[in-house]
């Protein structure tokens, strides 16, 4: 029997980009942005200096040194028993991130085959049974079942099924088997 497929985003879902982004942005801008202060804000509101933000995101090793989300590694190992997993990242906007993301995945998720890593510009072409992402701009085009992973910028959005962490994501997906 063919396994169902899951497209899983990297930043904000597998990798804790929030913590690193806040740290780098504050250092570069001399601000005191915190996780609590940006809850419910759009990214443009939370990080208003867009030029500075793009500079932070294009810094060498920014993506390579992101912390892993709690329970992400164990959750993907467990899900891989019943699902085919594709890591899908809209990475081409930040070309410096491409090699860094591949290396990061190799370190933390070595059980994901290279052919199941998709670094793209738009996720509209992704056709999997499920998509786990933190951005509605990706989930709104999902051809399968969209699953929104909670992040500061989506806490007020309610038009997709929401999971708050990897334990909830695994529980939901295993119920669908």
UniProtKB/TrEMBL annotation:
This is 5'(3')-deoxyribonucleotidase. Transmembrane segments: none annotated. It holds the Pfam family NT5C. Belongs to the 5'(3')-deoxyribonucleotidase family. It comes from the Bacteria.
